[in-house]
Structures are given as structure tokens and as C-alpha cells.
User: What shape does this take?
Amino acid sequence: MASLELRHVSKIYSTGDQQLAALRDVSLTCRPGVVTAFLGRSGCGKSTLLNLAGAMDFPTAGEVLIDGVSTTACTDAQLTTLRRGRIGFVFQFFQLLPTLTALENVELPLLLANTPAPRAIARERLQWVGLADRGSAYPHQLSGGQMQRVAVARALSQSPAILIADEPTGNLDTASGEQVLQLIRRAATEFGASVLMATHSLEAAAIADVRIHLRDGHIESHS
Amino acid sequence: MRHWLLLLRTLVLRPLRADPLRSALTVASIALGVGVVIAIELAGRAATGSFQNSLAAILGPTDLEIVANGGVDEKLMAALTALPLNARFAPVMEAVIQVEGLGYVTLYGIDTIASADTYVKTDAAATLDNCPQIALAKDLAERWGRHVKDRVRIFNRQFCVAQIVDARNGGFIGMDIAEAQRGLQRYGQLDHIDVTVDPSESLQAVENAVRRVLPAAYEITRPGARSRENQRMLRAFRWNLQVLSYVSLVVGAFLIYNTVAVSVVRRRAEIGILRALGAARQGIFWLFLGEALLLGLTGSLLGLLLGRLLASAMVQLISQTINALYTTSRPAAIEFTGPTAVLGLAAGLLAALVSAFGPAREAMQVAPTEAMSRGSREHRSRLAVRRHAFFALLAAVAAALVSQVPPIDGRPIGGYAATLLSIVATAFLAPLVVLRATAWLRRPLERVFGVGAFLGARSLAASLGRTSVVVAALATAIAMMFSMGVLVGSFRETVLVWLGQQLRADLYLRAAGPAATGAFPPLPAGIEAALRTLPQIDALDVFAAFDFRYGPDRATLGGADFDIIRRFGRMRLLPGQERDAILRSLPGHDNVLLSEPFANKHGLHRGDAIHLALGPRQVTMRVAGVYYEYSSERGFVIMDRGTLRKYLPDQPVTNIGIYLKPGLDQNQAQRAIETALSRFPVSIARNQQLRAGAVEIFDRTFAVTYAMELIAVIVAMLGAANSLLALVLDRRREIGVLRYLGASSSQIRNMILTEAGLLGLLAMLLGLALGLVLSVLLIYILNKQSFGWTIQFHPPYVVLAGALLLIWLVTVLAGLYPARVARRLNPIQVVHEE
Ligand SMILES: Nc1ncnc2c1ncn2[C@@H]1O[C@H](COP(=O)(O)OP(=O)(O)O)[C@@H](O)[C@H]1O
Ligand SMILES: [Mg+2]
Assistant: This one.
């Protein structure tokens, strides 16, 4: 069963009297356990596509179907439920909450979703990314690589069906980047998530099962 | 020069414009603060500034004034006019009277024949048949719709308007002195004799010559003395109001501090870059002071306008208070003068500068290329918590010490310094309280309100620096409100208890006319005798009071019947005095009782000698005791009626308390007495009426202070909304991330509202602690030193609890707008902003 499907999706930004098509007629399907990498130069529409796929934004034409339901048809509350249970996000700049410890950051989505035993799950995820001993550290006490691993643990806290990573290694050195990529790869195999990853780097593209090249908002090639 | 303008634009103007609501809130808080200061200044001056004598309008200018306690003997005129001096002596009667159906006015009785050149021009008016003439101030004539030749009913007789006088202060009637004496029943007495000296004569020579014919206890003063006395008497009152008016400004200053501190925190990276590009330290410092000045100036200018508007609303309230507590006055016109504007601007700008100094210095110390993250920044302020707590301790100790300083020139400077230091101590203690309390409350809050509360508590503690400033500002406003509430509540309770002891008689009698402080209209002659014949009457508590001078001050001198007072248990003495023995010692001796404010103001104690000018004589008496008295801030000196009669045989009775025979029906008895006295122009009030009236006056008196407290609280609310908004804007990326992580919009709202609620709660905790300290300072030091009253500590718990709850709710409400802003942030935009 396809957990995520884009059907003839277009996204047009109107700023003043200017119209900018960030995505044009994009169709694709992402399957559980598969890592899909989106490649292309800056401004080609990768982030836009990921936001649509993560139900954070809506297409101007076409449909985004998550578990067979169109995001455009969802109410705000349904979207929130969707994000809580089905989708995990990893960002280029980590986006950990500076006032919370690593463990609390991982726990946060569980708390927001009111999941039982959040602390135990958060510990488990931290252990899974190899940071069991850094749980009580605050973000500013961690290295960039460690922060991104905490972010991956946080994204996986709810065992989401879809993991979205927007340039997850864009801000990391090669070694830490490699560690994070391995975790993302394992997320697909061990959690069975459909992983959608936007990236510039060849190393990142290398771990993907499917590589999609975007150019000016449309799919240039599939490999 | 050009590059500083550029810097001003990038670092100050652009951010202010980018955040218009916050800039507006800051400006509004300063405007309110300055507005209150200006309003109190203007209204206070207008309410107290109306003592200028209007007499000059009908008598011409005066050089000297002859006065005496208990009135000047008319016979003195003969001796004075016989003096070989080139001077004119004008006898004057002066009183506040009621004109039927028209209201209260000042009456001047003058010698119309001797003053014919300045007074009534006897032309057309003179033809009026046998109708005594009056001169009417223009404002009254207009208000009453009277013209020359019209009639006015005064003292139960018709008078004819012979002239309308255009005088600056207005509000008076002039008539012949003989008519005035007859109407006031003060035959042979004058209130003062005004002396006009011919330019050819030396003023000093005239003064010396006059003094030689005056009895020892008579005084010769320069005109305006009365006005100066009044101003002096009102000084403490006005001063206290003025000091209170600065509270809002102090709260506003906290908010400017907050605004500039937020600017500095937000623009640290920019400052660092500018420094690296060669901007000088001093320049950065002045830029941020410039921001504060800009906010302060805008706020102050608006405040001037607001103050002028508020003043119109306040002048009536203040003048009612003055009439109730001090002396009869009519409010003058509000005059907005240059110095007042300067005062407002200076106050606003100074508040802005002082509060921006710290943040501006911090900006100056930013190292070039510094781009520290907020985490480490707030981490540093966490380390300073202990040092701040230490400063708090120092300030508290200093407050305790200076509170013991005796008043300076009658002003409780030490008390005010202690108040300010207590506020400073609270501000320094705030970070510790915020940190501890949020750590404590986080878990329970989370359990009740969920994850939003957990996050809110965290972020409050994380932005400790500015959270604590807002908490301190709110706490100051709450403490001020609380302590004023305790003061007023305690005072009210004290007065109620005192009224119960003081008002023992069933009925109270006084002349029909204005019940104004400092005015003692005499009861008609023969009324005492008429009363004593009535069968309903058990006893009469007869009192003869009049306004008198004691040194440079004015007070009330009274003759009372101490046997009756003793029998009915009226008058409560200060502790440690044997009431019965003291009251017994008054009849037949040159002994007096002093009211507590009088004794405190003049440093007199039981057993001391007191020198009083009584009529022509200077008399030394002994202070037999001091009694509680709260009816007015004017002091009272009370002697036995027999003693008073010995020195001033003609002082009329002014008040009579009637004790009815036990077991009589009150209503019937009152009606019988009223019928018996129907031919006398008197007013009879029941005990309960008098009490209710006193309480009403009391409540009105404190209306102004309530208004000011309210404004301080509003300013603090604006601050709470302002800084919550800043917290939201600064954390917008985090809020966006929360949305990505599955936070619902109600969770976001809860988070901000929890922050608002916590902010309010912490402010309340601190405010209560500070409020208790301030109430003690207010009741036992500030009040005691400025007014001399002993107030028992009686906090009005229910009212205070209600007010606090209300403030807390409003603080939470102040979080609604920031919460809305937070909910409406576009997560995609804010997360990808970097
Ligand atoms: N909110 C927006 N408003 C207008 N244009 C936008 C907005 N977000 C993105 N764009 C534009 O859409 C295009 C695609 O952007 P984005 O998806 O961020 O590209 P990428 O992530 O591949 O660099 C860019 O030209 C960008 O400028
Ligand atoms: Mg992108």
C-alpha cells in the first residue's frame, strides 16, 4: 500500500502581480521502507515538495494523498493528528528547542500527541541514535552531528510512516553527515518509513533507493 | 555624521517600525506615566491655587493685614484711624455663606462708605427703595442670571445688586460690614483690617506705628499670608499625591528597560558586525540611549496632552478632598504653563534614560563579530541570579535603615527612599523567584495543563533576563495597589471605629450652611437656652469652634463641655493616658487636649506648655492629653468652654450634640425638636446620617489614589502584553518547529497563555511580598510623618483578594493577543527564515 502519493501536483506562489511556479505537475508515489532522494540545484522546488508531502502546505493544483486521504480535504485538527502520528521531520538547521534537553526534545512530539510512556520511548530512540548518555545535555552543549542525531530520534519518536528530511547533512561535516545518513537509511528499513530526503550531496543520494531530479519545479528524471 | 544616521536607521528606527505594536505599547506606557504626573501637577495646583483673595477687586490693593484669633475687636478701628499716618484702614468680614437655592459663596463685608471710591458706584442703583446693596462677582452674576438692580436673598432678607465686579477669582459677594456682622451674628467683631499705605509713607514705619496700638496677641501680616498658610497646610497632601503619581512612571521605566534590552539581545549579531566594521563603542551606547530617548520623547509629548485631559477630570476630585480635609476652596482654572511641560518632558526623558542605561552599556560591550546564541546569553544571566539576590539583600537592608530616618522639613524623605529601595530589592530578587518558581511549578502545571504549560514554563525561565523585568514591573504595580488598598482599608476601618466612639449623641445641630472644613458658622444666639427647655433632652454636648492660627499654621480651636464628654464616653485618648483624670482636669484650668495630628506636627506631648494667641492676649496653657481625631488634617486644640469664655467671651456656639432621654422614640423626639427650633436656621442630623456622610467623604477622598493605582496597573498590563509579544516574536522559529512536530494551535495558545498566567502569578507573589512591606511603610512611616494619624492595621482581605484575582485574569487576557500572533505564524516561513 502506498502511504504517500502526489498526483499532478503544482504549487504556484503569487507575490504581488508576479507568479512563480515552484512545482509543476509532479506525480510520484513513495512506498514504505524506500528512501527517495530529491536532487537539484537550489530553488528547484525541493523544499516546497517536502512541505506538501508533510501536509504543512497545500498544492494549488493536484492532490497529495497520505494513507489515501487528500491533505486538501483535511481539517486543521485532522492535519495536526496526521503530523503527530504519521510524519516526522528533520531539518537542515536541526531546529532543536534550545530550552529543552536532548531527551526532552525527543519526548516533545510524544507529549504533544499525548502518547503514553513518552519518556521510555524517548530514551529508546536516543539509544537508537547512539546518544543514550547525552540525554540531559542542552542543544548548545552538543556538536552539530549530535544535534542532528537527536533531531532524527525526535522525528522517529512516533514511529512515523513518512520521514521527511530537508538537506539533513547540509550543515554537517562529512563524517557526521555519514552517521546521520546511516540513521536515515536504517529508519526506512527498521521502521518501515517512506523516507523523502532533499539533498545536494552525492553521498546522500548514494543511500537512496530512488533518485528524483527536479528542475524548475518539474521532474527531470527518475532513477 | 552620515554613517551614524545610517546606523540609527538600521539599528533603531527600522526595528521600531518593523514592530509597530510593541513600539506603540512602550510609548503608551510612558504617555500614561507622564500623563498622570502632569495631571496631578495641574489638578493639584488648580485645586489648591484658588485661595487668592478676591478682596482686591473691591477694596483695591492692600499692603498689610491685621488679624487675631477669635476675631479683631472693632473698637481698634478708632485707635488706628486716629494714628497720624498716611494710610487707609479697611475693616473686613469674611465668611463662606449659603445663598438660598444658589449655593455657597464667599462673603466680604466691607465699609462701603469709607471705600466708596472703589466699591459701589452710587448712580442708578442708589434709587432702589430701602434695599441694602451688594456687589456681585461677574462669574456668580452670570451663573445665577442676575443683573444690576436684581434681587438676591441672603440671611433671609432681600439684597439688591448694585454692581457687578469682574475679578479674576470671582465667586464672592460684597456687602456693607454692618449687614455682614448682623447676618453672621458677630457684632463688634472683624475678621481682619486691611491697611493700604500711601506711597509717600514708609511701609515699615506704618507697620511699627500700628503694632504699638495693637494688643499683644494680634498679628500684622503681609497680604497673601492666608494663601501661603493654605499652601503650606496642603503641602504634605500635594506632595504625597505627586510622589504617588510617579509610580506609573516607574512602572513605565521598567518597560522602557525591557524594550531596549530586547532590542540589544535581538541585535547582538548586528552590533557585533557593526563593531567589526569600525563603529565606536560610545556610538553604539548612544544609539541605544537614542532609541530610549525617542520612545521617551514621543511618550512624554503624548503624556502632556493626556495629562491636560486627565487634569480636568481630577481637579474636581482633588478639590473635594481639600474641602473635606483642609479648608474651603474653589478650584481655579487649570493653567498649563511652560514649566509644567518641561517637568513632564524631563520626567519622561529621565525615566527613559535611566532605564535604558544598563541595556545600552551592555550593547556597548558586545565584542566585534560576536554572534553568541541566545542559549549562552541567557546562561550568563542565570549565573548573575545569585549576584542579583545579593544586591536585593543589600537594597532591603538599606531600605530598613533609611526608613528610620526622621522626616526632613516635614517630608518623609526616608520613607520614600525606603519605598524606592524596596522596589529595587524586589527587582533584583525577581530572577531568583522566576527561576525557582518555574522549576517548581513546571511539573504540576504540566499535569494540569499539558505540554503547552511545560513549554511555557521552560521558555519563561530560559528568557530569564527579560521575564524578570516584566515580573518586577507588574509586581511593583501590584504592590502599590495592594499597599494602597491596605492603607485605605485600614484607615477606613480605623475611622469607622473612631466614629463609633466619637459620635455618641443622638442628634447633631449646626447652623444651616456649608459644612466646610475651616468654616464654623455660628448657631443662632438663644438656641442653647431654647433646647434646654425641651423635655426630650437628656444632655447637650455644646461645642464652640473657630479657625485659629498657631505659628505659621492654621488649626481649629474649640471649647467643649468636658463633664458631658466624660459622662458619655466621647473622645478616645492615646494609650498610656488616664482618660477620666485628664478629662476632669480640663474644666477650671488652663489645660488643653490636642488632636493627634496637631501634637505630631508640632512635636507637643502631654505635660508640655503650649502658647496660644487668644483675642488680645498671649496665653500659656498645659497639654493635658492627646486624643485620636480623624475628621480633618487640620489640628484641634480643645479646652473647656469655661476656659475659652474666660479669654474670648463672645465666641459663639457652633455645634451641639443632643442626647435624648433614654427610651424615647427617636423619630418623634426629632420631630418635636425640629418643631421647637423651626424659627432658627439650623440643620439637624442624626447620628447615622453623620456617620454615613463621614464615610462618603472618606471614600471620595481616596478616589484619586484609586485612579492612579489603576493607571499603574494598566501600564503594567501593557508591559505584560508587550513583552509576551516580544517573547513570541523572538521564538517564532521554535513555535514553527512545534507546528512541524505536531503541536495543535490550541497547544500553542496554551503555551503562551501559560506564560502569561505564570508571569501574572509570579508578579503576584512578589507583589504581595513587596506590598506588605510597602503597606507597613505607608501606614507606620509615610502616613504618620506626613499626616500624623495613627492607623490600625486592618487589610480589607476580600477586596484585595478580588482585586488580585482580577489583575491576574487581566494578565492572562494580556496574553491573548500574543497567543493569537503565535497561532497565526506561518511555520514554513519562520522555520526556513535562516
Ligand atoms: N513562500 C514563498 N513565496 C514565494 N516564493 C517562494 C516561497 N517559497 C519558495 N518560493 C520560491 O519557490 C522556488 C522553490 O523554492 P524551494 O522549494 O525552497 O527550493 P529548494 O528547496 O529546492 O531550494 C524558489 O524559486 C523560491 O524562491
Ligand atoms: Mg530548500
Observations:
- The longest helix of chain A spans residues 174-191.
- Chain A has a mean pLDDT of 89.
- DSSP finds seven helices and ten strands in chain A.
- Strands of chain A lie at 4-15, 18-30, 35-39, 61-66, 69-70, 87-90, 162-166, 194-198, 210-215, 218-222.
